[in-house]
Amino acid sequence: LIIRSCLPLTTFLSQQGLSVFGLYPEKPCRPKEIILMAIGVLCAGVFTLARIMSSASGGHSSEAGSMVLGVFMCMASLLCGSLNLALAGVLGEIKLNVYDTVAYMAIPAAVFLMPIAMFVQKPVPGEWPKVFGASHMSDLEILQGVWQLNKTTMSWLFLSGVLSFVYNIIQFSIVHTLSPSATAFGGNFNKAALIFLTLLLPFLRVHALPGPPYIQVIWAAVVVNIAAFSYYSYLQIQAKLEAQEKGPKILEDEDTDSDNESQEDSTQE
């Protein structure tokens, strides 16, 4: 979650990269906003490093190695998520409505994931190998097994697909109305709340919290990370409000200029 909170920075970079190829309007680079994003990303790195070092110092070297792999996978997921938002913004720029955007992005995603779901074998966790009669199964084979065991469960799967479709419509509506960066900012608030709840409430933790001094470093990194990206979000909202206020003023100035020109023309006549 702390790595996913860096989504605004990667989304900003994705927008700038797409603007180089003329696919998206170039976003202005404001030094204060860039510094805030850099601070947030730095704190995320400190958090992750403290977590890895605490596992290594506790004698869990294999767990620390798995964490490093997990960090790289999270970074890849982060880049893909930001590119997804940026591409949704591009589709909005070419005047596609939200429903077209969701449909056009869902089809290639399904085609890309279909071979993985059909052919990649994964270990079956817990006691499920006894139920299915196999220790390794693909996602499609698991779905077929669940269908045979309990068809009611599959109805919840289809319902989750409908809810996912609605969620994508809402998300891409925000992308089209505001910007990909604004959508990334909004997603940071639920991550911040969940991170705090995980640190405060023991029953939400998957792993035990590390001891000092790592836990103090983790708390400081989380607080500063959330504060930096929250203030960045505030600056973005303020900039949006200022732009909306300037719009009517420009129209008023243009109307005043046109009225003055018409009065001068009538005086000359």
**Shape by Cα distribution:** globular
Contiguous runs where pLDDT drops below 50 for at least 5 residues: none
List the quaternary state of the chains. Answer: single chain
Beta-strand residue percentage: under 5%
What is the alpha-carbon Rg in Å? 25 Å
The side-by-side strand order for the widest beta sheet comes to 1-2
Order of H and E elements: HHHHEHEHHHH
Distance between the termini: 71 Å
Largest sheet: 2 strands, antiparallel
| DSSP helix fraction | over 70%
Q: Total strand count, please?
A: 2
| Average pLDDT reading | 75
Q: How would you classify the helix and strand content by structural class?
A: mainly alpha
The helix count comes to: 9
Description:
Helix content is 80%, strand content 1%. The chain has 269 residues and is mainly α. Strands 1-2 form a two-stranded antiparallel ribbon. The relative contact order is 0.13.
Key descriptive features of the protein:
single chain; 80% helix; two-stranded antiparallel sheet; 269 residues; mainly alpha
Outline of the structure:
By secondary structure, the chain is mainly alpha-helical.
Topology:
Blueprint: H1 7-20, H2 31-57, H3 61-93, H4 98-119, E1 122-123, H5 128-132, E2 136-137, H6 139-149, H7 151-177, H8 180-200, H9 214-268
Helix pairs in contact: 1-3, 1-8, 2-3, 2-9, 3-8, 4-7, 6-7, 7-8, 8-9
